[in-house]
Amino acid sequence: MDALCPECQQAMQWQKGHFICEACHKSYQQQALCPECHQPLEELKACGAVDYFCRSGGHGMVSKRRVVFTYQLID
Ligand SMILES: [Zn+2]
Ligand SMILES: [Zn+2]
User: Fold this and answer.
1) pLDDT, tens digit, for every residue of 7-62?
2) Beta partners for 49?
3) Which ligand does the CA of 26 lie closest to?
4) How far, in Å, from the CA of 69 to the mean position of ligand 1?
5) Nearest ligand to the C-alpha of residue 53?
6) How far is the CA of 20 from the centre of ligand 1 (A)?
7) 17 C-alpha vs ligand 1 centroid, how far in Å?
8) CA nearest to 17, candidates 69, 58, 74
9) How far is Cα 41 from Cα 1, in angstroms, rounded to an integer?
10) How far apart are CA 73 and CA 20, in angstroms?
11) Measured distance CA(73)–CA(67) in Å, rounded
12) Cβ atoms of 11 and 4 closer than 8 Å
């Protein structure tokens, strides 16, 4: 899965826990959102895999393929 820069839509690089857009010289934090209610999902890390859980919207476990990823600027 390519993470695309919200500003210029170019593929970003993963570096030290966040994404970097080399074109814009900006850093972004990835945020996982529920596809149903667009509330932030809780990340459950188990056995090297990450599961996503919608607690605030009550949608339970969300498959990674359905998760909506957004990117927030880090300053
Ligand atoms: Zn960019
Ligand atoms: Zn939800």
Assistant:
1) 999 999 999 889 999 999 999 999 999 999 999 999 998 888 889 999 999 999 99
2) 46
3) 1
4) 16
5) 2
6) 8
7) 17
8) 74
9) 18
10) 10
11) 19
12) yes
What DSSP character marks residue 6? T
Task: Specify whether the CB–CB gap between 17 and 64 falls below 8 A.
Answer: no
Nearest CA-CA partner of 42 in 62, 24, 28: 62
Q: Can you give the pTM of this predicted structure?
A: 0.76
Residues, beta carbon < 5 Å, ion ligand 2: 34, 36-37, 54, 57, 59
How many other CB atoms are found less than 10 A from the CB of residue 62?
A: 21
Both tokens of residue 22? 């080399």
Domain boundaries, the chain: 13-73
CATH pick for 13-73 out of 2.10.290.10, 2.40.50.40, 2.60.120.200, 3.40.50.720: 2.10.290.10
